[in-house]
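Possible regression after last week's pipeline update?

I re-ran a chain I had predicted before the update to compare outputs. Posting the input and the new output here so someone can diff against the archived version. Not blocking, just want to make sure nothing changed silently.
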Amino acid sequence: MTKRRAAFYWMTLPALLLFFAFHTYPALQGIFYAFTNWDGFSGGYEFIGLKNFVNVFKDSNVLDAYIFTFKYAITATILINVLSLLIALGLNAKIKAKNFFRAFYFLPNVLGVLIIGYIFNYLFSNVFPVWGEQLGSDLLSTNLLGNPDWAWIGIVFVGVWQAIAYNTILYLAGLQTIPTDLYEASSLDGASKWQEFWKITFPMLASFFTINMVLAMKGGLMVFDQIVALTGGGPGTATRSIALLIYQGGFTGGEFAYQSANAVIYFIVIVAISLFQIKVLQRRELDQL
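New output (post-update):
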């Protein structure tokens, strides 16, 4: 038995070392540099304590990036869960070509985020304006991504379109766990489709709803690839998220230590929001029992 356990430890050790080398160690390095003034290029640095953390709270660029990121994350989380739940309900019904539609809706999750972003960048720039002119719409006849007030809508559209696929699969898995006897009993009692959904389906999907809400919010808060491919943070800084700000300032702006402090703060924010979501939604799960 001891030899078998030793074999398991030896199998997990390489993965543990790789995880530490490429994830844990760089994260610890970032936390260390957050207390220095290193610019990311020079050979020396000095310890400055909490100065970077204090300056982050005074930076208007950081505040604007937080506002945009939360606006995107909240909007995307709501749309992703509403649309993916509706699609899952449709795909779970007795319809023809069910397997085809399931594969079709999951396709966006297979494609690369940057590839999708560049494709939609071309569509927003060259295809949709032509359609807008033919329809006589002033809003659609111009490049939506070039409008500071509406560019974030285009990013939300692409982000939601791709994220729906994974959440739909999770909701479908949850729908498979609901006993059909419950629906048969409710139909005998004369319950409507809405009553079945609100009294049976949604409560039984409580745990899956919790998972999807947390994952969607986390993904929205960490939005990066879509912005890089669609707008690059523009026009101006209208669509610059926290992740993009950390990347641009840290790796190309000579603010490595400063943006490391920003990253540490943002990591704490994401963890706090995720834990709050889990606590609130799990309490809702218990209320449904």
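Follow-up from reviewer: compared with the archived run. DSSP finds twelve helices and no strands in the chain. Marking as no regression found.
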